[in-house]
Amino acid sequence: MNDPTRIDMNACATLSLADAALVLGIHRSTASELYRRGEFPLPVLQIGHRCRVTKIHLERFLLGGTADADASDGGA
What is the pTM of this model? Predict the structure, then answer.
C-alpha cells in the first residue's frame, strides 16, 4: 500500500550545493560564490554549516526557468 502521507526516507529531497552545481553545469566554487553574493538562481537551505538545494526547485528551474520558493504549480 502506498500511503501519500508517509515520507519516503530512502529518497533524499535535497542536494548539496556542489551537487546542484554539477547538475547545472557550473563549478562548485562558482555556485558557492553566487550563493555568498545572494545570486544563486535557486533557494538555498542553510542547515548548520551545510547548504542544500531542494530537488523540486532544481527541477522547476531546469524545466521552466523559475525556482521561486513561493512559485505555484497551477499558474495564476
Answer: 0.72
